[in-house]
From TrEMBL:
<dbReference type="Pfam" id="PF02518">
    <property type="entry name" value="HATPase_c"/>
</dbReference>
<feature type="domain" description="Histidine kinase">
    <location>
        <begin position="314"/>
        <end position="406"/>
    </location>
</feature>
<dbReference type="InterPro" id="IPR017205">
    <property type="entry name" value="Sig_transdc_His_kinase_ChrS"/>
</dbReference>
<feature type="transmembrane region" description="Helical">
    <location>
        <begin position="124"/>
        <end position="144"/>
    </location>
</feature>
<keyword id="KW-0472">Membrane</keyword>
<dbReference type="GO" id="GO:0046872">
    <property type="term" value="F:metal ion binding"/>
</dbReference>
<keyword id="KW-0902">Two-component regulatory system</keyword>
<keyword id="KW-0812">Transmembrane</keyword>
<keyword id="KW-0004">4Fe-4S</keyword>
<dbReference type="InterPro" id="IPR011712">
    <property type="entry name" value="Sig_transdc_His_kin_sub3_dim/P"/>
</dbReference>
<dbReference type="GO" id="GO:0046983">
    <property type="term" value="F:protein dimerization activity"/>
</dbReference>
<keyword id="KW-0963">Cytoplasm</keyword>
<dbReference type="GO" id="GO:0016020">
    <property type="term" value="C:membrane"/>
</dbReference>
<dbReference type="InterPro" id="IPR050482">
    <property type="entry name" value="Sensor_HK_TwoCompSys"/>
</dbReference>
<keyword id="KW-0808">Transferase</keyword>
<dbReference type="GO" id="GO:0051539">
    <property type="term" value="F:4 iron, 4 sulfur cluster binding"/>
</dbReference>
<feature type="transmembrane region" description="Helical">
    <location>
        <begin position="52"/>
        <end position="70"/>
    </location>
</feature>
């Protein structure tokens, strides 16, 4: 049997199994102590040692009650009764005196095995159990009147060995279970921390995309309009004021968008379309009209409305793509097309602007800046794809396709 000097780690005092085992051991101790005292008084009445036997028996019972029943789990307050080894030493000393005066009290050692195995390091506890077993065997041989009894010499150590081995095995199994529980709790805490970190990163990504597609694009448009107004203020005040009013309108919409995406609500255009009884198509038509773009719907919309996150993603993609057209493409015509297919919905944004060389730009689809990567991230989270076709001087076509049966979990 493996041995070590690790101190015992008893189960928590509130464990029902531990309480029941302790109750059985206390009861066994008092039964054996009482039986030994009664046996002595019946066989040796009126002897000079009788008062000593009675006094030591009462003292041993009182110590056991005080040290192991009344305050079994108090430790570290600096008193003698708070140290497990000292408590056990006091009880064993009184018990040893009793055994010297009356060998029949040796059987009281059996419950003391439990105390030793529960409070001492394994190696020390087994050594003490061996010593106590030897005392029990010696005392029983003194009481034996039929000569050498093999059942006492061999049976008693065998029973003690089985009891000790069983108890140590149970203690180690309990320790392994507590270690496993601690590992599981630690793993659960680590998983919770990981989920919080992932949630934080996802929220940061969401906010970065929202800020780019709404506030950043709006501020860029305002800057362009105000710069244009400043250049022509003296030459054409009416047009300059019109630019300022347009910039003011964009600022108002940006404010509404900021309030909504902070609370993770639908885009303002989508919310306004929903309030009027419309949906994604009306919201896209509003955005297209604002940017002087044509809007067209092909195919038949599914009976069930598109999920909110699909509608929000398509609207954000349309807003970002039209902002890119306005700022970079210098296009004379732009068209938005929403197409419903059997298994997916497709949004195409096409312009006749100056275009760009997708092969010279980083990314699998030649994405640049932050706008196109943000669009691609939105589409991939819904299990879709984003394609960009362009060439210098030949305009650009951006196509976002999202399956109608979107995955339950966002695609990483």
């Amino acid at each position: 049997m493996p041995q070590d000097d690790t101190p015992r780690s008893p189960a928590p005092p509130d464990d029902p199994d531990t309480r029941r085992l302790a109750l059985v051991m206390h009861a066994a101790f008092f039964v054996l102590l009482g039986a030994s005292l009664i046996r002595f008084l019946l066989r040796h009445p009126g002897e000079p040692r009788t008062p000593w036997i009675i006094g030591l028996s009462v003292t041993l019972a009182a110590l056991h009650v005080l040290l192991y029943v009344v305050r079994p789990a108090r430790h570290g307050d600096g008193t003698a009764a708070s140290h497990p080894r000292l408590r056990l030493a006091v009880v064993l000393l009184v018990w040893a005196l009793l055994v010297v005066l009356a060998p029949s009290f040796a059987w009281c050692a059996v419950p003391l095995f439990y105390i030793a195995l529960r409070t001492l390091p394994t190696r020390t506890a087994l050594a003490l159990v061996t010593l106590l077993t030897g005392v029990v065997v010696t005392a029983q041989l003194q009481l034996s009147t039929g000569g050498l009894d093999p059942t006492i010499v061999l049976g008693t150590p065998a029973v003690a060995a089985v009891a000790a081995a069983t108890f140590v095995h149970m203690q180690r199994q309990a320790a392994r279970q507590r270690t496993l529980i601690d590992d599981l709790l630690r793993t659960r805490r680590e998983l919770a921390a990981t989920e919080r970190r992932e949630g934080t990163l996802a929220e940061r990504q969401r906010l970065s995309m929202e800020i780019h597609d709404t506030l950043a694009q709006g501020l860029s448009s305002q800057q362009m309009l105000l710069q244009a107004a400043d250049r022509i203020w003296d030459a054409d005040p009416a047009t300059a004021r019109r630019h300022v009013r347009t910039a003011t309108s964009i600022a108002e919409r940006n404010l509404a968008e900021a309030r909504r995406f902070v609370h993770d609500l639908a885009p303002a255009d989508l919310a306004e379309a929903g309030a009027r009884g419309g949906g994604l198509e009306e919201a896209l038509r509003t955005v297209a009209a604002r940017e002087d773009a044509r809007f067209r719907v092909d195919g038949t919309a599914p009976a069930a409305p598109l999920p909110d996150r699909v509608q929000s993603a398509l609207l954000r993609i349309a807003q970002g793509a039209l902002a890119n057209v306005r700022e970079h493409a210098h296009a004379s015509a732009t068209a938005l097309t929403l197409t419903y297919l059997d298994d997916q919905v497709v949004l195409d944004i096409a312009d006749d602007g100056r275009g760009f060389d997708t092969h010279t730009l980083p990314g699998p689809t030649g994405v640049r800046g932050h706008g196109l990567p943000a669009m691609r991230a939105r589409v991939q989270q819904l299990g879709g794809t984003l394609a960009v076709e362009s060439a210098p001087g030949e305009g650009t076509v951006l196509s976002a396709a999202i399956p109608l049966a979107i995955p339950l979990e966002p695609t990483p």
